[in-house]
Design goal:
The protein is α/β, with parallel strands linked by helices. It has 9 helices and 18 strands.
Length: 374
């Protein structure tokens, strides 16, 4: 049993919910403080794709695969604890090359998938005619495709909610309110202010997503996390569903429940503006139309936007806050936040309860950014 008496997790997104879950599994008393509802921000609007072999910064490639393995173990356990269906599954995904340069890159990615066969991944290269036989709705102006198997997909809001519910089944509590400060005494956490009222604790975990920077003034430590706006178009069209998800330079076509096709996703530095935009709509729609002309027959169901937390070096911040006993942070997962959340939560729980973790988070150390303010 850990010597930690009470952990307050600040923020009820997927990183916070995962941290609370793993802490509760370890028998720690934990409270999640959330001002707008569990999984109500970026965790509610992600495309829900889990792609640990593609689009990952090299220093955290091992961590991404470790976190994916944690996902696979979590799925049946969350359903067992909550009695609810998560609906997560592994899928086929086709990475489409639009020219010879992108084809060469995909052949390198094929090697990554083949090297991960022990984790259930596989890949095969298809020439244009072969792939168009599988998915004839795509434009013939492609240079081929890498058809893969093994990536995952889930409803990210459902994942977040079930993580929080599973934590509560094991003793965690959820408190509604806005954190306005972290109380320190001689550099040690003694409590968290919720709507100006002190809640006693000996450990605080900041999982505020793109709002993580608010904790800089509470802790006197730089936590350079900014929002990256992402938009998705949820479409519906007649005909058969996609045979596999399709990813091409600048656009992704994701098959989702009820035959929907999600067009994803933009990346835009727009501050804290989270309103869907005309720019986002046309960027996604025009790219999708060029890749799959039948999108012209589709109808728009919903246009969503959310803010994903990113750091200056595009690596997450996961670990102990330097110079502040009992203070931890888990943020900055960016577009890979859903994938990395179990790893972030497990690593933080390990550090809090044992002082160390076997997960590969060395590149995510919060101490890499700056010195502690006096």
């Amino acid at each position: 049993m850990s010597e930690v008496e009470h952990v307050v997790v600040i923020g009820g997104g997927v990183a916070g919910a995962a941290t609370a879950y793993y802490l509760s599994v370890a028998g720690v008393r934990v409270t999640i403080v959330e001002r707008e509802g569990i999984g109500s921000q970026a965790s509610a609007w992600s495309a829900g794709g889990l792609n640990p072999l593609q689009g990952i910064e090299r220093p955290i490639l091992p961590f991404a695969l470790e976190s994916f393995r944690l996902h696979l173990a979590l799925w049946p356990e969350l359903e067992r604890l909550t009695g609810q269906s998560l609906g997560a599954r592994r899928i086929s995904m086709a990475y489409v090359a639009t020219d010879n340069d992108s084809a060469s890159e995909l052949l390198e990615l094929r090697d990554e998938f083949e090297d991960a066969r022990s984790d259930g991944f596989s890949a095969q290269w298809l020439e244009p005619a072969e792939f168009l036989t599988l998915e004839p709705r795509l434009s013939p102006k492609i240079a081929g495709a890498l058809l893969t198997y093994g990536n995952g997909v889930l409803d990210s809001q459902r994942l977040t909610v079930l993580l929080a519910e599973a934590a509560q089944k094991q003793g965690a509590t959820v408190m509604e309110g806005e954190v306005t400060g972290i109380k320190l005494a001689d550099g040690r956490v003694t409590g968290v202010e919720v709507d100006g009222i002190a809640v006693a604790c000996d450990t605080a975990v900041v999982t505020l997503g793109p709002w993580t920077g608010a904790a800089e003034k509470w802790l006197g430590v730089p936590l350079p996390v900014e929002p990256l706006k992402g938009e998705i178009l949820r479409m519906t069209q007649s005909g058969s569903p996609l045979r596999s998800d399709v990813v091409a330079p600048g656009i992704s076509l994701f098959g989702r429940e009820d035959g929907q096709i999600w067009l994803a996703s933009t990346k835009q530095h727009a501050g804290f503006d989270k309103e869907p935009s005309e720019w986002g709509y046309h960027t996604l729609y025009d790219a999708a139309l060029a890749l799959m002309p039948s999108i012209a027959e589709a109808s728009l169901l919903q246009h969503t936007a959310c803010l994903r937390p990113i750091t200056p070096d595009d690596l997450p911040i996961v670990g102990k806050v330097p110079g502040r006993t009992g203070a931890y942070v888990g943020s900055g997962g960016g577009p890979k936040g859903i994938l990395l959340a179990p790893g972030m939560g497990k690593a933080l729980a390990d550090l809090i309860t044992t002082g160390q973790t076997s997960l590969s988070i060395k590149a995510c150390d919060p101490a890499r950014f700056a010195q502690v303010a006096s």
